[in-house]
Amino acid sequence: MYVIAPPKQSSLAVQGREERFPVRRVFCVGRNYEAHVLEMGNDMRDPPFFFTKPADAARDTPCTVPYPPLTESFHFEAELVIAIGKGGANIEEAEVMDHIWGASAGIDLTRRDLQAEAKKMGRPWDWAKAFDNSAPIAPILPIADVASVEKGRIWLAVNGEMKQEADLADMIWSVREHTAALSRGVTLAPGDIIMTGTPAGVGAVEPGDVLTGGVDGIAEFEVTIGPRG
Fold first, then answer.
1. Is residue 4 part of a domain?
2. What is the CATH number of the domain that holds 161?
3. Where does the Fumarylacetoacetase-like C-terminal domain lie (predicted)?
4. CA 137 to CA 156: how far, in whole Å?
């Protein structure tokens, strides 16, 4: 019994299945590729840190994402995505893979000008990262069918022009390392999503642009930027 109708369960498509993956929370790893850390002017020696997006920021791809309000610098960040199927706290690195249900590829969409302002003023990044439709994610591939989450090409193109291209092996903190670190701060639960950081080459998009990309052997996405909201 609720005083209002409960929110709809957010979920993502699963490759080859009608059943969907329910999304509980979306965690994002910040600054996890060396070249991207350098291009953003940050220090590679920092330990992993995390920010969040709401569950309903997750969107199936292909999709159209409206150009969001309050920004003039709307950026893409291609990322490997991990879906947690078994919860736990203080997970050991050697046990992390037992907690992963599947993997995919997605985009951490960012209002970069708002992020820059938040950094300058020492404020949280929520307004820059946790807005509507900010986590388009391709259908999830069950982990049994995933060759590796530690190596493989990750890429993104805008209107067919390659903008980001790297290898998962370039991560500063591997999936095992950053998932274990995350579980020391919060208890992970089935349905949690982890967006694992982006390589160098991030940039701005405009209405009408088409973003394609993915992680080889895991998933590919296509996102069209719609009119300004």
1. no
2. 3.90.850.10
3. 26-225
4. 13
Q: What is the pTM of this model?
A: 0.95
- How many other C-beta atoms can be found within 10 angstroms of the C-beta atom of residue 106? 29
Tokens in use for 225? Answer: 């930027």
Q: Is 8 contained in some domain?
A: no
Tokens of 156: 């993104």
Q: In 16-144, which ranges are E strands? A: 21-22, 26-30, 49-53, 58-60, 63-67, 74-76, 78-84, 100-107, 110-111, 135-137, 141-142
Question: How many independent structural domains does the chain possess?
Answer: 1
Residue 48 domain-assigned?
Answer: yes
Burial, 36: exposed, middle or buried (Cβ in 10 Å; 0-12, 13-18, 19+)? Answer: buried
Residue 7 located in a structural domain = no
Q: How many CB atoms lie within 10 A of CB 99?
A: 20
Q: Which residue has the tokens 């790297």?
A: 166
Instruction: Kindly report, residue by residue over 128-146, the tens digit of the pLDDT.
Output: 999 999 999 999 999 999 9
Hey, what are 17's tokens?
């299945």
174 contacts: CB under 8 Å, gap ≥ 6: 150
| Residue 110 structural domain | 21-228
Cα 7 from Cα 73, distance rounded (Å): 31
d(CA 39, CA 31): 10
Q: 């950053």: which residue's tokens?
A: 178
Each residue's pLDDT tens digit, 57-116: 999 999 999 999 999 999 999 999 999 999 999 999 999 999 999 999 999 999 999 999
Backbone angles phi, psi at 52, to 5 degrees: -130, 160
CA distance 33 to 122: 23
